[in-house]
Amino acid sequence: MAMNLRLRDDQQEALKQRAEEEGRSMHAIVLQAIDRYLEQEADRESVQRLGAKYAARHADLLRRLGSK
């Protein structure tokens, strides 16, 4: 599936400058940014799931610790 990405003029200029500085294409930088975002969100969801799991498992202990 193809998509068009519309950037503001300032974003496009900054991306173009960064690509030139790094000797990479703008496309490669955008793909890397998307990959990083997706990985961070997956990690965040995992942490939230594990936090909820352990909070439920140790709810009594957490209540006791919170009351001190």
Automatic annotation (TrEMBL):
Segments of this protein annotated with the region Disordered: 1-21
Pfam families listed in its UniProt record: RHH_1 (PF01402)
Protein name as catalogued: Ribbon-helix-helix protein CopG domain-containing protein
UniProt-listed InterPro entries: Arc_rbn_hlx_hlx (IPR013321), CopG (IPR002145), Ribbon_hlx_hlx (IPR010985)
Limits of the Ribbon-helix-helix protein CopG domain: 5-41
GO MF terms held by the record: DNA binding
A GO biological process held by the record: regulation of DNA-templated transcription
